[in-house]
Amino acid sequence: MVTIHSSLNSLTESSLLRRRSFLASLAAIGLAACTPEDTVSSHGNGEGLSQYPVESLNEAEEAGILQLREEEKLARDVYTLLEEKWGLSAFSQIKPSEQKHMDAVAKLINRYDLLDPAQESIGIFENQKISSLFETLMTKGEQSEVDALQVGMTVEDVDIYDIDEILSKNDNQDIQVVFTNLRNGSIKHLQRFYTDLKTLGGTYEPQYISQELFDQLTIGI
Ligand SMILES: [Fe+2]
After folding, report:
1. Is the pTM of this model over 0.90?
2. Ligand 1 center to residue 43 CA distance, Å?
3. Structural domains present in the chain
4. pLDDT tens, 147-185?
5. 14 CA to middle of ligand 1, Å?
6. Å from CA of 152 to ligand 1 middle
7. Is 202 helix (H, G, I), strand (E, B) or coil?
8. What are the tens digits of pLDDT across the range 11-43?
9. DSSP letters spanning 10-74
10. How much distance in Å is there from the Cα of 50 to the middle of ligand 1?
């Protein structure tokens, strides 16, 4: 699960308020469009789930669905703002996939009749760990293009880590299908960010997944 330390969030209350005002003004941006850059194929947006049974949901599965809904929102919101800041193609091309990932998790929320935690406004989260992570990542991402791409890496890093945690506790077919596709998407996003990061001379050390897994996923880059 998200394990970022809250002490990393050093923004003052006033700067947070300014940021929230700015974020609210961005909330009207259209975010639902898809591009050919989307990297998840079948079931990437949750289509076709009706072929799988709605099985009983254990506590971990429910918590995992709700967490992933907001983690995909974290990715979408961070990439939206960093695209605005830096105009890097990686963010504009990956951002629509994150909306599709949010939509896919929303389908699970609907199938299991859960209360959707995701709010419309950019940068607003019910899960306080994700909210804190958002602030930390935005503070870093606004420093430079290299920092911004490292932030993209961290978003995908935590996403892959948490999806693996959730999948290890899940036995429902529909969750397995959706989350496996989200994971595949995150791997491709991680690879894209890493390619662009290395082009700018930047480096990255995994903060959530193991170095071994990171090396496997980025081999040849
Ligand atoms: Fe992603």
Report:
1. no
2. 15
3. 55-217 (1.20.1260.10)
4. 999 999 999 999 999 999 999 999 899 999 999 999 999
5. 30
6. 8
7. coil
8. 334 444 434 443 343 333 322 233 333 333 444
9. ---HHHHHHHHHHHHHHTTS------TT----TTTTSTTGGGS------HHHHHHHHHHHHHHHH
10. 25
